[in-house]
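Need residues for this backbone.
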């Protein structure tokens, strides 16, 4: 196990998943309502693990067959991270985000179908896990360690979000908390983009 690669995978995986989107908002709402939390967080984390594995394994094989692909993807990944970071920094500057929690009770089947749709029908999931994590993993001597770190980040994030939601409820009802979160995500994205460009 290459600890440095695993830590890099954890940091990038955690940063990518940290930005609040439809999937994370759904997990947060399920956690706040304490409805089917284990099933929902496992569905999200296992889905990410599958996609990360495909990205790391597939991109490594493709990079070996196409000379120069790794460099193109590395700079492409850096450009994406710069844009992604700028989007979060812009959100932090604007502020005004809050978390509105839903009420009501949904069946396990409905909760899982919603979770699967928010995961597998979201094109950004493929960009983040298969393309971006796959391309970044190729620059490490131990891409499998990078993948393990990214998968652990996914499990850590979803379980923390699902089960820690009740503690976060009062905090994330305040717009200031979202601004701090967006600022942190944006800065991490730019730091990783700089590392990619410097090679």
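Answer:
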């Amino acid at each position: 196990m290459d600890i440095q690669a695993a830590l890099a995978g954890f940091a990038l995986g955690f940063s990518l998943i940290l930005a609040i989107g439809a999937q994370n908002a759904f997990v947060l709402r399920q956690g706040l309502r304490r409805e089917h939390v284990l099933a929902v967080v496992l569905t999200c984390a296992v889905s990410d693990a599958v996609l990360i594995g495909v990205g790391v394994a597939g991109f490594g094989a493709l990079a070996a067959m196409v000379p120069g692909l790794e460099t193109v993807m590395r700079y492409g990944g850096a450009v994406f991270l710069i844009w992604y970071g700028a989007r979060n920094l812009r959100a932090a500057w604007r502020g005004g985000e809050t978390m509105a929690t839903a009420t009501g009770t949904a069946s396990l089947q409905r909760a899982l179908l919603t979770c699967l749709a928010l995961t597998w029908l979201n094109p950004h999931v493929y960009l983040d896990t298969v393309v971006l994590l796959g391309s970044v993993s190729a620059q490490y001597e131990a891409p499998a360690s990078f993948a393990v770190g990214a998968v652990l980040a996914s499990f850590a994030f979803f379980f923390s979000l699902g089960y820690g939601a009740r503690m976060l409820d009062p905090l994330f009802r305040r717009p200031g908390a979202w601004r701090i979160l967006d600022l942190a995500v944006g800065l991490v994205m730019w730091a990783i983009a700089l590392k990619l460009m410097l090679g």
